[in-house]
Amino acid sequence: MNSKHYNINQLRIDLWNELKEKSNQITLVQQTPTFDDRLTELNEVLTNLVSIEQYFAFPGAPLVNQIIKAVKKGELKAVSNRVSEIVSLLVSDNYRIHPEMMDENINAHYANQSKKDKSTIASKRNYFEVLYVEDMTSKEEVVLKNKIKELINPHSDLTYDLVVQRSFQDALICLFFNYNIQAAVIRYAPLLASANITKLIKPFIQNVLKIDITNVTDAEIGPLLGNYIHQFRPELDIYYITDSSLTHLEDSTLKAFRRIFYRMEDVQELHLTIISGINERYETPFFTALTEYSKKPISVFHALPISRGNSVFKSRWITDFGDFYGRNVFLAETSATNGGLDSLLQPKGPLKKAQNKAAKAYGAEHTFYVTNGTSTANKIVQQALIKPGDVVLVDRDCHKSHHYGLVLAGAFPAYLDSYPIEEYSMYGAVPLRIIKDRLIALSKARRLDKVKMLLLTNCTFDGLVYNVEKVMQEVLAIKPDMVFLWDEAWFAFASFTYTYKQRTGMYVAQKLFHKYRSEEYKKTYKEHIANLKPGEIPSMPDPEKVKIRVYATQSTHKTLSSFRQGSMIQVWDEEYSRRVADNFQEAYMTHTTTSANYQILASLDVGRRQVELEGYELVEKSIEMAMVLRSKVQDHPKLSKYFHVLNVKDLIPEAYRQCGLSEYYTVKDGWDRMEESWEKDEFVLDPTKVTLSVGKAGITGDAFKNSYLMDRFNIQVNKTSRNTVLLMTNIGTTRGSVTFLINALLQIADELDENNRSLNKREAEISKKQITSLIKDVPPLPDFSYFHRSFQASPGVPGGNIREAFFLAYEEELCEYVLLKDCLTELKNNRELVSTSFVIPYPPGFPILVPGQVVSEEIIRFMIALDVKEIHGYRAELGLKVFTIEALNRKNTISAMGAIPFPETKPKSKK
Questions:
Q1: How many Cβ atoms are within 10 Å of 908's Cβ, its own excluded?
Q2: Burial per residue of 760-795, b for 16 or more beta-carbon CB atoms within 10 angstroms, e otherwise
Q3: Is the distance from CB of 51 to CB of 201 less than 8 angstroms?
Q4: Residues 452, 442: contact at Cβ < 8 Å?
Q5: Is 672:4 a contact under the CB 8 Å cutoff?
Q6: Residue 843: what pLDDT?
Q7: For a designed S-S bond to 347, which of 320, 351, 580, 687 qualifies (C-beta 3.0 to 4.6 A apart)?
Q8: What are residue 834's DSSP bridge partners?
Q9: What residues contact residue 69 under an 8 Å CB cut-off, 6+ apart?
């Protein structure tokens, strides 16, 4: 179901702006023939707004209905003024920090205040809204709201209003629409179906409409609604008011709610409980401890001369450094782990509490802060879980930290190839069939017991997201004790909006843990096994054997609020306490500094507070910004002439898009809903990763990034490929920054037009050739070849001894350099070239060669075709570093028959 707006809030703001425009216009045509038509248009906008505003406390349906009455009375000038005030408050968000401005008389009142009184009114307060679900009359609603208002402390930093919904469906719609909701109160047995769903809002509520409520009893409505609210918005505090005896409530009901009230015992108690819940989420144990510590008069007889700013502010030469950062950062710099602070290596105080709060926010059993990035987080997890000789299935184009981590751990990587996207010189993700084929091959070779971990990047650099539940379920059917490491470096934000959350490691771990223990699943599993054909492999895990063991590493600083290098490790592992905890602590000690940066730790703590209180809104808005950027480029004829935003079908082959979604937006049809695709498809595209193809402009990705966007417009972008640049939106992206980017692209397009008009015939031919080279003559992307027989874990079986090859290269006499142009000659002469090191070109930023890997002709041709300046592990003047023939002969203990490549079905190119 398509819409011209991406989400309801975009539509809502557009309707209010349209109402402002029309209410201004109608005051100018009151005595003209067009008045009736203008009045009809005005009333149509108001009708549409009522259908949306019923899910918000401000402005809310009552206020819109007041405007409708004023229009009927002919008070058009007053309506115009009032609408302008409302739009100003909505667009600026001032009503949420100055809630007193929502009073319809505030402007007149404010104008008469003295300057002193104005500053009092302007003091900031945090405004939020509470969803209250009960089938009550309008009069009862007014009485309840007035009682709550009387209880709110006018001097408190917190204030709120109720949004009353009378049905199960309306409550969930309100939950998705209203970013201001911070708590939900469910009164026993509200109505089930909504009578308020209009054609206008239908495209935006597919998650609600697909819920089957036909056979729900009165006693089940409240608990069921509580469970759905927890599923969709787990950060919210949920309360239940029941008329039933509390002794008859099931455990599942009790767990779904923060507190249960018997009838309406006391409105004051409810109010205090709501405020207490908000304050609890607002708490930042470590940040608060650090700010309190910084206020103390402390004498330092320890490390850090910079502590308290003493070595800075007393200096005659570096005071500019202190002036730039301010005093607080130096007051908070300390080596102390006492005095109210804590140790990251063995936290027992505020850091322990902060990590526990983070675990709750992210849906993990355990959370660990990491202050030197996800590169270190990856190594910690690998060292804690795998030992020398273990086989790890890993996507070849993962971050380099995983490859180095495997060297340190001594594990045998079995590399998995992603499908290639050759037109844009990038790789996609690893198809599930490739993973299963590897496992089956290892099983046939009787090495399945050696397989310990599946390591995948989710989402990828370019925004490709796995179907985590499907991958885990089908892998666990083959290997029921598999450990999953999901590298979510670019996906930390995904836990805070439902569509995305379904594809995160922690959410799926929790879901499958409960699913496999249910009697319903056990029954389904038995039927599944009974229906298998002879020799057919089960696609469902055995509930008696399966273990849920999931780890996720997240670069919090990449997509949420944290200082650089602030990362987290999220853990959901049934075996953690029994088998992993001690090893994890040793690995954590190995890789974690004893001088953790307290500013990074404090930012992780505060970032957690933010996502619990406004994460849903911020993430939804970042997606909206990405969608706006995509639509602007596609809609504008000048931009689409030179640039193309890669859509779903450009990056994901049709075979992996079971729901058929090919693009999020078209000029003709508007926005296509993504919910079904994100629920079912093997791969989906995260729209916040906006890949802009610049090949039609005749500019390489690297040149466009540096010479155009950065040097001329100070626009920083993520990464490039041969003919693309990757743009990202995040929770810090504003409409202004999107507009600035669009304007920059328009300026570049204008210049390209001007340059093309001035080309002579020969110059035009050269330009055309350059464009053809960028968009058609693309070098083929190489797959992983195979490990040389000297470094295979087992002959002909996936897995290589990367550690042995890595350290063998330390013996210089066993290595030599071969120039790229000579490599092809050596290969034609049947020489085996074996890499001694990681070779990592930027872009794409992952190894095309690893230690012990046989160098193939396609890899050499790819390196020759590369037009990037930065290739780690390769020096052009020396050549490619490989093992000497003597080294391989000495190392070879198997046979002289040549390397035995693993027979596999490689993914077909998209071309």
A1: 10
A2: eeeeeeebeeebebbbeebbebbbbbbbbbbbbbbe
A3: yes
A4: no
A5: no
A6: 67
A7: 351
A8: 854
A9: none
- Determine the Cα–Cα distance for residues 599 and 344; give it in Å rounded to an integer: 13
Q: Which residue has the tokens 């930065």?
A: 870
Q: Kindly provide the b/e burial profile for residues 808-823, where b requires at least 16 CB atoms within 10 angstroms of the residue's own CB.
A: bbeeeebbbebeeeeb
Q: 299-358: per-residue pLDDT in tens? A: 888 888 999 999 999 999 999 999 999 999 999 999 889 989 999 999 999 999 999 999
Cβ atoms within 10 Å of 576's Cβ, excluding its own: 17
The secondary structure of 595-662 as a DSSP string is S--HHHHHHHHHHHHHHHHHHHHHHHHHHHHHHHHHHHHHH-HHHHHH-EE--HHHHS-GGG-TT---
Q: Cβ(191)–Cβ(166) under 8 Å? A: yes
CA 576 to chain centre: 25
Q: Quote the strand ranges of 633-762, DSSP E.
A: 644-645, 665-666, 670-671, 683-685, 689-693, 719-720, 724-728
The structure tokens listed for 384 are 């804690």
Beta carbons of 638 and 404 less than 8 angstroms apart: no
Q: How many angstroms separate the CA atoms of 791 and 814, rounded?
A: 15
Distance, CA of 56 to CA of 592 (rounded, Å): 47
| Rounded Cα–Cα distance for residues 429 and 800 (Å) | 21
379 closest CA partner among 564, 569, 547: 569
Tokens at residue 559, please? 């997509």
Place of tokens 């795998």: 386
Q: What is the pLDDT of residues 633-691, one digit of tens each?
A: 999 999 999 999 999 999 999 999 999 999 998 887 788 788 999 999 999 999 999 99
Residue indicated by tokens 């499958």: 512
Q: How far apart are CA 556 and CA 536, in angstroms?
A: 42
Q: Give me 699's structure tokens.
A: 């500019």
The pLDDT of residue 454 is: 98
Q: Count other Cβ atoms within 10 Å, centred on residue 750.
A: 11
What's CA 478's distance to the chain center, in Å? 29
Return the closest-CA partner of residue 492 out of 558, 564, 419, 415.
558
Q: Which of 494, 489, 490 is nearest to 615 (CA)?
A: 494
Three-state DSSP class for residue 836: coil
Residue 699, SS3?
coil
| CB distance 807 to 414 below 8 Å | no
The encoded tokens of residue 210 equal 């697909």
Phi, psi of 314, deg, nearest 5: -85, -10
Query: Do residues 174 and 197 make contact, with C-beta atoms less than 8 angstroms apart?
Result: no
Please identify every stretch of the chain with a pLDDT value under 70, giving residue numbers as ranges: 1-2, 103-123, 245-253, 264-265, 843-844, 867-868, 892-911
Q: From the DSSP assignment, how many helices (H) and strands (E) are in the chain?
A: 39, 28
What gap in Å lies between CA 320 and CA 302, rounded to an integer?
A: 25
- Report the alpha-carbon distance of residue 257 to residue 527 in Å, rounded: 35
What is residue 496's DSSP assignment?
G
Hunting for tokens 């109505």 — which residue is that? 191
Beta strands in 281-362 (DSSP E): none
Is residue 351 within 8 Å of 596, Cβ to Cβ?
no
d(CA 195, CA 450): 58
Residues 142 and 88: their CA atoms lie apart, in Å, by 26
Q: Tokens 């402002």: give the residue.
A: 20
Contact between 226 and 238 (Cβ < 8 Å): yes
Quick one: which of 819, 834, 721, 712 has its CA closest to 785?
834
State the Rg of the chain over Cα: 31
Six-digit token pair at 684?
A: 């989906």
Contact between residue 857 and residue 833 where contact means Cβ atoms under 8 Å apart:
no
